[in-house]
Structure prediction request, 415 residues.
Amino acid sequence: MSLLIPVYGVDEVVEVPLDALPDDANDLIDVLTGETATLDVWLQCALAYYAAGRPAQGQLVLRESCEIKEDIFPDAKAERVSLLLALAGHSLNAALAIPDRRERKKLLDDAAQLFTRADAVDLSDARIKLGRGFLHLHDGTDATDPSRARRAFEQALLERPAEPLAVLGLAVCHFVHGGYADALRLFRQLLTSCAQPPAGVRLGLGLCYAQLKQPALARACFERALQLEPQNADAAYALALELTHDATDAHSVREGVRRLAALHRVEPANPHVLNQLANHFFYARDYAKVEQFARQAYQAATSSRSRAESYWHLARNQHAKEAWAGARQFYSEAAKIAPNFVLAQYGVGLMHARAGELEAALAPLRTTARAHPAAPEPLRVLARVLLEAGRLDEAARALEQLVALDESDPCLLYT
Prediction:
């Protein structure tokens, strides 16, 4: 197969075999420029490089095509938007693969600028809203304004009802912000509405089932995702994690750890795998390995949530060794990076309480108790600190909650 580039002014074409694309993309760019190739031909050439596994050359063609003046092809709005979105997609995908936070931000900023340029070409194009939605999921802004990505996907659906990518984006939004039942409903919708849904839809279903405490269904979804796409690292990681969490089956736990170790050999800088290995070795009381894997995870992490988790592993590692200054420092850093990370807030509260800083301990302990109302331990700690701080009415309410959870709790004997 070949690319066909029309020769300007005559009824002829320049034929470029797909298996013989120029090593230097500038050679092809010169041909495209010389023949005043239309924008759709530029896009075909860029995509041919991507299909051949040569993204750098593809990006070069896209970058050059996006600088073609609008008055040359004034009626090619859709094609111009397609080029800008393709280049924005390149920057977004590259950002997700780069652990260096400064480089990642530069790429995300580049994608944002390209979406803005696409808006200037055709504000009504639903594809731009889709792209912005996925950008908001990854650029950190959605952490402070959870509605931004969701709004973008909902606007895209108004213009393209049942658009699979918009439905997928909404499902991810619901999942990220704890709406697991809503996310499950949308993933199921994709499963029934798409002729051949990608493995990622099964992965999403499995993640929802895992959060909804349906481990058998979660495991089945992860296994099916791996059948459809054996190299899907996210599905392999999710299955390994599900197996390690099966406290009722020692064989499952060993199999999960074995799979995590295998993933680590394939992707030694995967922060999720590194954090889970740190977690495993904490319970194995191998504190040196906890420190090793947690620090590696922090260096490799591209999201604030993953970095906060790494600091939390370091904090409880210090906590277990009664190295209080280190534990306090790492709990505080984790809570600062990800304020909604409740386990880090709990650690901060424990460190304040231990130091006798009762008033400072109350806010993070209250946050933890509200987030986990069925967990007795945070309530016990909160009740004790409230009593020591002389807040007797609030302490009584905390103790009433404890009684409602378990009236035989021995903590009640000491109040």
User: Anything to note?
Assistant: The radius of gyration is 26 Å. DSSP finds 22 helices and two strands in the chain. Residues 100 and 355 are 36 Å apart (CA to CA). The mean pLDDT is 90.
